[in-house]
Write a structure and sequence with these properties.
alpha/beta, Rossmann fold, about 30% helix
């Protein structure tokens, strides 16, 4: 038995479309220990959000979980009843979504939406409306929102993007949690606000001793926040390492390409980036899914999917370049 907040083994997920069933997740492995902060990086469309939605079981109706395991503190999430899943979402896990506008209901005031979340996870018999409003104000102050009384009486469209995202963070942390999932929480925010939101999340996480999964394409944010990084490409985990080790010594050609594509303050011209694009999941490449874009491709890469191996302690990679002949 383990108390790990999350352990994913060989997860395969697809989507039914008019062209057939896509094969998006292709054997994802991921673990999060108690109090650990991990980051997931990769291009758009690599399966990062699908993985997180599978954890919370909030996939769209056309999704198909083909095989694999998702465990929360030794309990199989994929086999949970509806009541067990509701309990999981209300009290144990929370997710901050990319788009705060889509995450908030436009026809209800912020106070109504916050109180609904608090009531769903607390015993509220005998409590007055003033008690809930007072807790809402404390939550909004915790996420550094000025004039929380006005925010509570506002509709989402009356708030800026940064304020809406802070409200979403307050909702995610309205009750005690084991795991916080932040899915590119700064994507739709101004550059001047992004650092503030990430710093806010980091401070709250440290204060509450939460386990965190941060999905981000802002590699600088990942580097300064998480303990360990997972690199995903086309539905597969291609490299895992402690943050400092990954950024100083990336092994997989895709991971190196990602890091080399990041603009540098010192200048030095523009990177060529990674040629090509994420594959069509209806008919993905055989073998290693990265081989059509790889500049170090071997004949074996086109036929066989490379198994994941540990190169050094806490640094593993799925690439034929590191297997003995």
């Amino acid at each position: 038995m383990t108390d790990r907040p999350i352990e994913i083994k060989d997860l395969h997920v697809g989507y039914k479309t008019y062209r057939g069933t896509s094969k998006v997740l292709n054997g994802v492995h991921l673990t999060v220990d108690v109090g650990e902060k991990i980051g997931i990086i990769g291009e758009s469309g690599c399966g990062k959000t699908t993985t997180m939605k599978t954890i919370l079981q909030i996939l769209p109706t056309n999704a198909v979980i083909q095989e694999g395991e998702v465990h929360f503190r030794s309990k199989d999430v994929l086999r949970m009843s509806k009541n067990e899943l509701n309990e999981l979402r209300r009290k144990h896990m929370a997710m901050i979504f990319q788009d705060p506008t889509a995450a908030l209901n436009p026809v209800f005031k912020i106070e109504t939406q916050l109180i609904d979340i608090i009531k769903s996870s607390e015993e509220y018999e005998g409590k007055k409306k003033e008690d809930f409003r007072a807790k809402c104000i404390r939550l909004l102050k915790e996420v550094a929102l000025p004039d929380p009384e006005r925010v509570l009486d506002s509709y989402p469209f009356q708030l800026s993007g940064g304020m809406r995202q802070r409200v979403c963070i307050a909702m995610a942390l309205a009750t005690p949690r084991y795991l916080l999932i932040a899915d590119e929480p700064t994507t739709n925010l101004d550059v001047t606000i992004q650092d503030q939101v990430l710093l806010l999340i980091e401070n709250i996480v440290e204060k509450r001793k939460l386990s965190v999964i941060l999905i981000s394409q802002a590699l600088g944010a990942v580097k300064g926040f998480v303990d360990k990084v997972y690199v995903m490409y086309a539905g597969s985990t291609v490299e895992v390492a402690e943050t400092k080790e990954l950024f100083s010594n990336p092994l997989h050609p895709y991971a190196r390409g990602l890091l080399e594509s990041t603009p540098k303050l010192t200048g030095g011209g523009f990177s060529e980036g990674i040629k090509g694009r994420v594959p069509d999941y209806i008919d993905p490449p055989s073998g290693c899914r990265f081989h059509p874009r790889c500049n170090q491709v071997l004949s074996r890469c086109e036929k066989e999917k490379p198994p994941f191996i540990d190169i050094v302690r806490n640094h593993g990679v799925a690439c034929w370049l590191y297997h003995k002949k």
